[in-house]
C-alpha cells in the first residue's frame, strides 16, 4: 500500500519480491521515520495455515505509528493484505517440525524533502521468509551481557515503539557483547541505570523462588506479544507472576542467596530463550547451572504446541486461514 496525504492509504497490490526505488532524499534515510512488526505463520502437514495473534501486531504497529507521526493504518485492511499475500503463494510456508514463515510488515517515510517534519508520503510493505527451527540442535541457554555504559531508551523516547532507531542505538553494545562471548545485551533503564528493561530483541523474565517477575511496561520497553502470552499462560496455570520494577541489584542478590531459580527471554523468533549466564561488570552469574530450566521448557513446549496446533488453544490466539 502507498500513502499520500491527499488520498490516504491506497493502491494495495501483491508484486514479486524485488528491489524498490526511493529518492535519496526520502525521509526514512535521514530521520529514521519507519516502524515494523514481526510475526509468524505456521503450517502442519494436514492443517490450515495458522497465524499467532496477528491483530496484536497490527495494533502495536499503530501504536508505533502514533509515536512516529505516521498515519494510522486500518488494522483489518492490514490483516486482509497479509492473508492475501500468504495465500498468493502458500508453497512458501514450510511445514516441517520447528519451521515457520517469518512475516515482516513495515512502513517507511518516502517523501523526498530534507525538512525535519513528518513525511506526507509512506509505503506499507510486507515481506516474508521461511525460517528453520530456531533450536535446530535443541533448546540451549544463552549468555547475556548486562550493559552498563550505553542506554537504549528513556521514558518519553521511542523505546516502546518498534522503530529502527532503537535497534541502531543498540548496535554498538551488541557488538561489544558479542566480543565478550555473550549473545545479546540486557538493557538497564536510562535514568537510574539499575532497573532491568529488556534484552536486545526479547522481553525478560526471572523466576525468583517460584514467583515469575518481569519488568512492568514503563513506556521505554516493547510490549512483546510473546511476553503477554507467557503472562496469560502463567496465570492460567496459577503460577504467581509479577510485573514490576526489578533492579539488577535484586537479581545479583537473588543469585547470591540461591533464590534466582531461572531466567528466560521471550520473543517471536526464539519464543523462549533460557538464560544460562549474566555477565555484569565483569562478573559471571551462572543461572540454573547454565541449563534450561523446567519452567522455560514447559512454556516453550506449550506455546510452540499452541502455535503448531498440537496443544489446545484455550485463549483463541490462533487465526486459521483455511483456503481448502
Ligand atoms: N523487545 C524488543 C526490543 C524486540 O525487538 C522484540 C521482538 N519483537 C521483543 C521485545 C519481543 O516482542 P514479541 O514477543 O512481540 O516478538
From TrEMBL:
Q: Where are the transmembrane segments?
A: none
Q: What pathway annotation does it carry?
A: Amino-acid biosynthesis; L-leucine biosynthesis; L-leucine from 3-methyl-2-oxobutanoate: step 4/4; Amino-acid biosynthesis; L-isoleucine biosynthesis; L-isoleucine from 2-oxobutanoate: step 4/4; Amino-acid biosynthesis; L-valine biosynthesis; L-valine from pyruvate: step 4/4
Q: Per its Swiss-Prot or TrEMBL entry, what cofactor is needed? A: pyridoxal 5'-phosphate
Q: Which domain of life is it from?
A: Bacteria
Known InterPro entries for this protein?
Aminotrans_IV, Aminotrans_IV_CS, Aminotransferase-like, B_amino_transII, BCAT-like_C, BCAT-like_N, BCAT_family
Concerning Pfam families, the annotation shows: Aminotran_4 (PF01063)
Concerning SUPFAM superfamilies, the annotation shows: D-aminoacid aminotransferase-like PLP-dependent enzymes (SSF56752)
Gene3D superfamilies from the entry?
3.30.470.10, D-amino Acid Aminotransferase, subunit A, domain 2
Catalyses: L-leucine + 2-oxoglutarate = 4-methyl-2-oxopentanoate + L-glutamate; L-valine + 2-oxoglutarate = 3-methyl-2-oxobutanoate + L-glutamate; L-isoleucine + 2-oxoglutarate = (S)-3-methyl-2-oxopentanoate + L-glutamate
Q: PTM N6-(pyridoxal phosphate)lysine: at which residues?
A: 162
One GO-annotated biological process of the protein: amino acid biosynthetic process
GO MF term set: branched-chain-amino-acid transaminase activity
Say which family it is in. Answer: Belongs to the class-IV pyridoxal-phosphate-dependent aminotransferase family.
PANTHER family registered for this protein in UniProt: BRANCHED-CHAIN-AMINO-ACID AMINOTRANSFERASE, SUBGROUP IIII AMINOTRANSFERASE
Protein name (database record): Branched-chain-amino-acid aminotransferase
| UniProt organism field | Paenibacillus radicis (ex Gao et al. 2016)
As recorded in Swiss-Prot or TrEMBL, the protein's gene is named ilvK
Amino acid at each position: 500500500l502507498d500513502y499520500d496525504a491527499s488520498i490516504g492509504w491506497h493502491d494495495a497490490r501483491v508484486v514479486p519480491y524485488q528491489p524498490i526505488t526511493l529518492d535519496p532524499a526520502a525521509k526514512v534515510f535521514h530521520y529514521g521515520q519507519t516502524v515494523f512488526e514481526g510475526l509468524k505463520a505456521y503450517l502442519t502437514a494436514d492443517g490450515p495455515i495458522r497465524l499467532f495473534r496477528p491483530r496484536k501486531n497490527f495494533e502495536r504497529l499503530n501504536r508505533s505509528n502514533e509515536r512516529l507521526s505516521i498515519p494510522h493504518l486500518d488494522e483489518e485492511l492490514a490483516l486482509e493484505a497479509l492473508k492475501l499475500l500468504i495465500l498468493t503463494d502458500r508453497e512458501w510456508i514450510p511445514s516441517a517440525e520447528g519451521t515457520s514463515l517469518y512475516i515482516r510488515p513495515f512502513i517507511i517515510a518516502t517523501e523526498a524533502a530534507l525538512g525535519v517534519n513528518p513525511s506526507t508520503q509512506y509505503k506499507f510493505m510486507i515481506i516474508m521468509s521461511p525460517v528453520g527451527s530456531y533450536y535446530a540442535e535443541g533448546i540451549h541457554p544463552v549468555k547475556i551481557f548486562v550493559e552498563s555504559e550505553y542506554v537504549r531508551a528513556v521514558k518519553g523516547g521511542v523505546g516502546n515503539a518498534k522503530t529502527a532507531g532503537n535497534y541502531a542505538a543498540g548496535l554498538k553494545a551488541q557488538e561489544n557483547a558479542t566480543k565478550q562471548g555473550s549473545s545479546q545485551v540486557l538493557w538497564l533503564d536510562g535514568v537510574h541505570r539499575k532497573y532491568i528493561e529488556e534484552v536486545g530483541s526479547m522481553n525478560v523474565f526471572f523466576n525468583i523462588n517460584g514467583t515469575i517477575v518481569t519488568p512492568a511496561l514503563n513506556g521505554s520497553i516493547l510490549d512483546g506479544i510473546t511476553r503477554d502470552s507467557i503472562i496469560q499462560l502463567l496465570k492460567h496455570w496459577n503460577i504467581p507472576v509479577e510485573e514490576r520494577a526489578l533492579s539488577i541489584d535484586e537479581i545479583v542478590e537473588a543469585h547470591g542467596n540461591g533464590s534466582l531459580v531461572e531466567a528466560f527471554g521471550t520473543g517471536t523468533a526464539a519464543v523462549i530463550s533460557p538464560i544460562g549466564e549474566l555477565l555484569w561488570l565483569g562478573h559471571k552469574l551462572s543461572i540454573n547451572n547454565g541449563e534450561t530450566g523446567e519452567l522455560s521448557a514447559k512454556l516453550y513446549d506449550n506455546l510452540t504446541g499452541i502455535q503448531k496446533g498440537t496443544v489446545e488453544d484455550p485463549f483463541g490466539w490462533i487465526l486459521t486461514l483455511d483456503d481448502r
